Amino acid sequence: MGRRSVRWPPGSRFLLIALLALGVTAYVGLVMRRGVTLCPPGLARQGPRCCPLGQQLEAGSCVGRATSCAETQTLINGECGLHATAAVRISGGRIDVAPDDWESEGHLSARSAAIAAFEIQRSEVTHAAWDLCEKAGRCRPLDSKESFLPVTGISPAEAEQYCQTLGGRLPTSDEWLLAASGAERRRYPWGQAGLVCRRVVYGLVDGPCTSGAVGPELVGTRPAGAAPNGLLDMAGNVAEWTRLGDSYAAYGGSFRAQLAGELKTWSSRLNIEPNDATGVRCAFDVK
């Protein structure tokens, strides 16, 4: 009995090939995401989060008593975080901005500005810090199960008011840019290249680093992405309100970002409403 040949309906072979290609792409993507290095020593990957050792991921939050932290964090009452009052001095100077990055063409206008010396907080403002303002009756309540997540969902006016309670203010957009890029005009806070998941809290919602995140990470979970001046999370985690003349702009990108252009030091968003991916760090005049 001879072999019977299989006759494919017209176009079905191409459909099968396309489905196989999609399947292979999805599988490769899954393998790559599983193999991505997100968490530094002291933290362990749990789903899309980097939880301190001793904690477990429950409903998107790292809960339990932490036993270790990343090198840039401190163990504070069983949680990993940073002391909110820590600030970094930025020397004054002239900042020259120009669209010399191909991704900045059409998004960045050339300008030059003289900036006086100032200080800026090392990390984004956390819920632990905000709670002190709330208890003083100066800030509205914000809910969080984790004390050292950055605050989000605040307006620029609320951010400004918080900074004023510390004797500070919002950084100007040029001050923020100088702090993030330095006099050498770095594309990223740490340097000119090297955007990888172990350096930046980004791509956590739908790739490229992982998927399924519902919010930012604890401050300081990416020590490899620190700027030379010691500032943390200037790219990714949450964007940060800055003052731009009589208006406001959000700089820095966030955990929702997916493209390199969203995370470069010059990248900003204008005229946006309070959201779950924008917070604040305060600046201080140097006397």
Short summary:
By secondary structure, this protein is of the alpha+beta class.
What does this structure look like?
- The longest helix is centred in the first third of the chain and has 24 residues, at 12-35.
- The protein is α+β, with helices and mostly antiparallel strands and 287 residues long.
- The protein has helices at residues 12-35, 127-135, 156-165, 173-181, and strands at residues 43-46, 49-52, 56-58, 61-63, 74-76, 79-81, 87-90, 93-97, 111-115, 118-121, 239-244, 247-251, 268-270, 278-279, 283-285.
- The strands form 6 sheets. The protein has a 4-stranded mixed sheet with strand order 13-12-11-14, with helices on one face. The chain has a 3-stranded antiparallel sheet with strand order 7-10-15, with helices on one face.
Question: How is the secondary structure organized here?
Answer:
Blueprint (H helix, E strand, L loop, with lengths): L11 H24 L7 E4 L2 E4 L3 E3 L2 E3 L10 E3 L2 E3 L5 E4 L2 E5 L13 E5 L2 E4 L5 H9 L20 H10 L7 H9 L57 E6 L2 E5 L16 E3 L7 E2 L3 E3 L2
Parallel strand pairs: 11-14
Antiparallel strand pairs: 1-2, 3-4, 5-6, 7-10, 8-9, 10-15, 11-12, 12-13
